[in-house]
Protein 1
Amino acid sequence: MTQHEMAQKSSSDIQISIVVPVYRSEPILPKLVDAVLKSMTDEKLADHFELILVNDCSPDNSWEVISKLANEHEYVKGINLRRNFGQHNATMAGLNHVSGDIVVIMDDDLQHPPEVIGKMITAISDGYDVCYTRYKNRKHPLWKKLGSQFNDWASTKFLGKPRGLYLSSFKAIRREVVEEVIKYDGPYAYVDGLILDVTRSITAIDIEHQARLEGEGNYSLLSSISLWMKMATSFSVSPLRFASFMGFALALLSLVMIAIIFIQKILHPEMPAGWASLIATILFIGGVQTLCIGMIGEYLGRTYLKLNGKPQYTVAGLTWKNDAR
């Protein structure tokens, strides 16, 4: 049997692919690999899964650890990105290399308990396209919880997300949906938006949110705002419609104010000119105009980068047992 035939046979045996974007998790990775193996063994899938670890150009020694784990375990595959592209783009890199019929996406910090993967697989086997998870006891700081609530409202308005569905980064997806998702080759990937573009056959299960095993989370407030902008401007024209509505509302308000001032001037000729109110009005209208121009600039900028072929990700190397490149 040739090496190519062996690779085909190996891929055909894979039922579950688990994709994990990796960033600053060097000490956690061995424990993550062991926990995933235990979960798959409990589900009698120890010989039928793959764990794809995507190193998003982590500044620590995560890639060295991934390479070592891939050399020790046949089910571990490593993907090394040339630079930091962000969690969703790294996830897309992993999705483009899966072999399983069901694909699970999870974080690298063990806040997502691998032991519930079996329940997610069952949900997909029951006929759903996607199974998300809901946290019963979130271990996130207050600002992140409030941000999630805002993101939940925004994704409902902009993406048509079903009410009550929490877009967790811990989810299981049917392979057919993954094949549609990876057709998107733009530089600003938002996996949940792509999923909602493909299907509404979605369910969710409750899980206990674990504390991060070591270190601190990698998502800052700035990262969360960037993700929200990606969601709002890459998958919806609602912000542009909002800008148009604001422009119409301000024009109408201006007409009303002009009429009021004109009437007051006729009734009270002695009334002095309102310098303060004039400046306040100018500043307000100017601020709204700047906001609207910024929104338009976001759309134009993303279109420009897409047309100029800005890459979604670039791979520096792949590694798995007995094969390293």
Note: The first strand starts at residue 16 and ends at 22.
Protein 2
Amino acid sequence: MSTQREVGSGALSLRLSAVAEWIPPGRVVADIGSDHAQLLIALSRSGLLNRGIAGEVNQGPWENARHRVKEAKLEHQIQVRKGDGLEVLDTGEAQVIVIAGMGGPLIASILDRGLQKLERVERLVLQPNSGVVHVRRWLHRHGWKLDGENLVREAGILYEVVTAVPGDPHEPYRKTPLPLDAAFEVGPLLWMERHPLLLDKLEAELEGLNRILSQLESARAPEARSRLESMKQKREEWRRWRQWLQQDGN
């Protein structure tokens, strides 16, 4: 099956299509770490973009994004800026901020360092490749309410999309039986909506924990033995959540 889906006249991967679905039309959109500006180009070609800002910190990706925008003849609508994280933006300039294709800790760090740039931002659309728990914790701590979560499988890999708006950060977590720390890991909206790929996510996490445990069990260092017990507890937690999900689905 093809991993491409058409968004206007620009093809996006399933991962980026899942990101694009959460971007309201007619907004000023900043894509931080823009991956050749392909998301903004596709939104523009679909008539969904007011104005776009592609941010890149490194010279090579910045040049590639500039080339792609110029090739698409969209310099009038999409600016490519070089800078670290949200420093490419003026306060209040963007209505939607997208950060996709990075680790969760890095996304949280970018948001933390650019906190003042989030004033008047309507929506955050975040797609961490790993460590999504760091993203949910950051949003909860800083007064952003989760209003959308999605899982999409592309080339055998599960990707998670998390979107948030200013609001009560506790609201999405009140309707789930999961403890708060567990909900940060699992995803409260994924749980409430019984997302069809959520069980696959739990299984993948358990497989990863089993691999780590297998490595730790053969290690002799005292710190490895200490971590072994911690990881065993974590595995039991994920097994319990899987069991709850399977029971609720029956």
Note: Residues 1-6 have pLDDT under 50 and may be disordered.
Protein 3
Amino acid sequence: MDDRFTDLNPKTCVVLGGRGFIGKSLVLRLLKLGNWIVRVADSTHSLQLHHSESLLAEALSSSRASYFHLDITDKHRVAKVLEGSSVVFYMDVDGISYDNDFYSCYKLIVQGAKNVINACRECKVKRLIYNSSADVVFDDLHNGVKSSAYQWKVDDMLIDLKAHAEALVLDANDIDGVLTCSLRPSNVFGPGDTELVPYFLKLARYGFTKFIIGNGDNLSDFTFYENVAHAHICAEEALNFQTVSVAGKAFFITNLEPKKFREFLSLLLEGLGYQRYELELVFVMMT
């Protein structure tokens, strides 16, 4: 390891889901800070670097970074990866989709969270930051304000399981010395997005985005992916200084620019060369 780097007294962290959309951005930001040894853990068996990831390639060659293939359901492997680290950034779990059955999703999201929490306690990890979602409490804004309570009834299986995992992380705060918090970004977008933008592009190709169901006045928050990565850095610093108002709490992360969802979608599609919505479809319940 470069002697100039060891003089910085670097901290060791693990980025679980470090090859995901937000995870990549967080890894890059941590390496740019220069005072971190970063363990990137993900379900991908081999690490394939894009040409834009030269900083990570350099860090791997100088031992400032390392990569671990990880099955989050293997509790012994999770503990092995976390051993010796002081901070865990728990990002989105790869390989989860609505095509999976409930049991598979439960193992990856909820049991995975239990494994990470237990490994943090066993390995004396000091701080655990969980990347959750604003959808665990509500879908849309009411008068520009998000609800902070979990929903009693959830139609989305994955969101319901993620809410369960978040609750486990927050309940584990200050047990065996582990300080935790959760971040709830809303509708994350940006270069490399694999969910939000691709989903609406697929709809646009089939012509479904020409229609708005209802009046289209529902407000939503949106978050640029780099802002989410920055929020994780801020959360770690706050927990490091044992800020009472942060430990065991959940925080919404947004661009502070709530928009009507149809306005955001129109700007997105027009920027990518697709047609703006044309028709509003209103359904009336007959009694």
Note: The first strand starts at residue 11 and ends at 16.
Protein 4
Amino acid sequence: MTRWGILGLGRIAHKFATDLLTLPDAELYAVASTSAERAADFAAQYNVPHHYGRYQDLLTCEGLDVVYIATPHVGHHAHTLLCLNGGLPVLCEKPFAMNARQVQEMVQTARTKQIFLMEALWSRFMPSVVKALDLIEAGTIGKVLGIRADFGFQAPFLPDKRGFNKDLGGGSLLDIGIYPLFLSYLLLGKPQTIKASVTMSPTGVDEQCGMVLTYAGNQMAVLNSSFVTKTRTHAFIYGETGNIYIHGRWHESQGVTLEPHEGDEQVFLYERTTWGYDYEAQHVMQCLREGRTESPLWTLDDSINLIELLDAVRQEVGLWYNEDDLDNTLTH
């Protein structure tokens, strides 16, 4: 039995907790919030034996095996270091932190202390994404030549809430643009060139972001994210001898279609009753059982590479946050 803690009790924490309850070898053992009342209410809803009204008090809970960090982006760096320095393994929500400098410090701390750390990019462990990767590695569409992926929804303009609040790391790129960028990195690695453009909200964060990436093998990825319009949120992978379509919403998809240039289509379905966070939770528990300090499927180097891509896109469009003031690669 793996005993989980959750730090930060917003909407995504509820989804993660719900999925955790479906796993017979997992127990939600402790939760922490900045509000004692919120922590108590959350604990009562999910029958959690320990709850705390301060994040640092989670470290006093004996018997915890791993902590899931579900705070806003701007807190990921500090909260991950809090847990790592307290000797607790960490699964931290994406984006891992606000910039590469912060991520590198998190990774260095975990590796120095030899404590498990992983970015919670749940899409990497979705059966649909795993299947698409397997099909590509099996050569079913030949060399991948192009990727087109999007993620967009209409978010209400609430300047004080996380989505548009610059002080909380708001903006479409860091929140949902990370998903198309993750897919391009997963399949093609780091690009040779990045071109990007954004439209800005009145609060100074991007409400839409478009990216075009080119690679050494004459490959291209066309990606976009949006808070102002609902897109189909599909992913298309174009190869020499066929295509792969990851059904919408592709980052949490329950289906993949293989479309060979010659021959019949094949559809692979992966129905589920959970939100889908159980897949990454299961992987973390497997890593812990095997004594690993990082995932072999989404490594800490992968997280460094992805945040460097996000930094490069932000540098291209001139999107800065307060956390960048101390960063050598992102300067005003």
Note: Residues 300-317 form the longest helix (18 residues).
